[in-house]
Amino acid sequence: MKQTPYREGIRIPMLVATAVAITESQMVATNSKGFAVPAHDATAKLFFGRAEHDVDNTQGADGAAYIAVTRNRHFMLANDAAAPLTQADIGKPVAITGDGTVGKATQGKLIAGTMMGLDGGTHVWVEVMGTPTGVMA
Fold it and tell me: pLDDT tens digits, the chain, 137 residues: what are they?
């Protein structure tokens, strides 16, 4: 019997949108055409995970470069001072509020994952799971 090809799904290669640069450890989402953009970008539609390396596609067309994105992990992200998460938010969805920053999930914000811990109040542990997350309705 022939084996069905598979991959672990922890590290995903994604094609990058035109006119975009993504830096290592930056949160990555897709735009409406399915190309990778920084998760805090106004065109971000679905959050996927964290960039494993730098990529510069500022001069290339859609899909001219790729980025490896990691998910299915807990990531430490900055706690947004304007909409800070507290211990009471453990187990609740958190929203992307800036580059590497998360805060309370509110309508219209892109969801990063689930808060799994508070680290000194200035950082939170966020679980990024296998299914991409979209904008909170």
Answer: 688 777 777 899 999 999 999 999 999 999 999 999 999 999 999 999 999 999 999 999 999 999 999 988 899 999 999 989 999 999 999 999 999 999 999 888 899 999 999 998 899 999 998 777 778 76
**Global confidence as pTM:** 0.85
Q: What's the half-sphere exposure (Cβ side, CA atoms, 13 Å) at 109? A: 17
Classified as helix, coil or strand, 116 is strand
Give the CA-trace dihedral at 74, 118, 95, 61, to 10 degrees. Answer: -40
For 6-70, strand residue ranges (E) read 11-15, 20-22, 27-30, 36-38, 46-51, 55-57, 66-70
Tokens at residue 88, please? 């009471």
The contacts of residue 40 (CB under 8 Å, 6+ apart) are: 27, 96, 97, 98, 99, 101
For the chain, the straight-line distance linking the first and the last C-alpha, in angstroms and rounded, comes to: 45
